[in-house]
Amino acid sequence: MKKIFFVLVIVLSFFSIDTTMAQCPMCKTAVESSIKSGQNNVGKGLNDGILYLLAAPYLFVGALGVIWFKKYRAKQMNASDENLTAN
User: Which of 37, 42, 50, 57 has the most CB within a 10 Å radius?
Assistant: First the structure.
């Protein structure tokens, strides 16, 4: 049941996505004007900011995964120690 719900949520999320522009109009204008003037530092700064914002959720989820794995592993180690001492 959970698997069907998960697949349904994924499929519905694909249908609900509208096509969007990659940048807001102000950012796009700033990058285009900086490129026309021969400077590319504004575009590089925006790209670095996008990568920073993209990495943050992955780092957060990764940290939660590591914490969960360590707790799960400690729980398994305690259970196996109890089984060894009971025998």
Answer: 42
